[in-house]
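Sample pair:
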Amino acid sequence: MAKKVSTVFVCNECGYESSKWLGKCPACQAWNTFVEEKAIQTTTAKDRKKQQGEVVKLNSVVKKETTRVKTGVEELDRVLGGGFVNGSLTLLGGEPGIGKSTLILQICNSLALNGKVLYISGEESAEQIKLRADRLGIDNDNISFLSETDIDNVEVSLDKELPKFVIIDSIQTMYSEEITSAPGSVSQVREITARIMKMCKQKEITTIIIGHVTKDGNIAGPRVLEHMVDTVLYLEGERYFTYRILRGVKNRFGSTNEIGMFEMEEKGLIEIKNPSSILISERDGNPAGSIIAVSLEGTRPLLIELQALTTFSVFGIPRRNANGIDYNRLTLLMAVLEKRANMQLGNQDVYLNIVGGIRVNEPALDLASVLAVASSFKNISIKEDVVAIGEVGLTGEVRSVNMIEKRIKEAEKLGYKTCIIPESNKKLLKEKYKLDIIGAKNIIDAMKYLGLK
């Protein structure tokens, strides 16, 4: 049947389609983002033969055992939920230069022990990939390379090679001749991913797609595709700092609360087995405004250092700056300090920083943030062996947090002597610990114990 070609206008920001050009996208509210593209339709809805699916009883469905393949990197296996599931489609996103290609190439040695690996790159040549592989110490005859950007040629190579694992680096470089827009546009990326997903599901090929996320958002990246793939991972961190955090955003086969931590070195990304000791390793002396808190990422407790600095403001409007936590949360906690603790911060510039470049969103850091700001304002140091955990409410009360025993055990393991926790959590503790447990009903109790009130 002859193909019927029509013209549609697609938003480059979010992929919204319209039959006519629009100045402003009704979906994402962006201006001047619509481009004209040809939409190819092989049949009409009237001519298409409908196939009705078979209705079955849910209790009669036989559950298949999920087979996982270990990657050889424990931190990656943790985020995936135990390894790659056979026939799954995984999307790894992150800014250019963050280390996505390096991480994926590192796991090729382990994957190649379970089957043939085909590395498809549209950005780099075979010589470039070989140089990186030599630097990472990768030497395996079961790893093949293909430099290709046309999805039709990729399909032919997959039929010929029949690999068990496929890596596509990156999705923005792939294109289909059936779509007139440039590679990397919303239509191209969405169409290419749909075809890759069909191939990997039909042939049970475990596929890993690498995608770029630009800061300005002009090029449609993997955020448009999150609903199409099985697993979405994001590699976070500043490219000029050594630490990287691998975070699961979506996972059909496991939890999305786990994180993996790495350090970028000359031989690639090195796993950090004990992140707590790394994040607080450079704490020197006992300066005012510094305190240790325990955050929980999935099932992993992390000891992190919070540093606060308050200085007299020379401008009419004082500055507030938060690095690693939500800015609005900082302003809220400062308001609680002013109202409930009678601490006059209206003429102070306040800066709060989480050491190590990581970002934490959970409210269990509230109490530590309040105590750090109070310590800097009073210029009174907090003892080095003190850890603070708790959420702070608007009335100044310290509210309970989840998994308090796991947090306390992590602090105890690293040698801390005192842990300030919510009073409601202390009443429910069943075990005895070597460190002193101090229960605080409100921020005044915690400040009095530390000599800040």
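The two ends are 82 Å apart (CA to CA).
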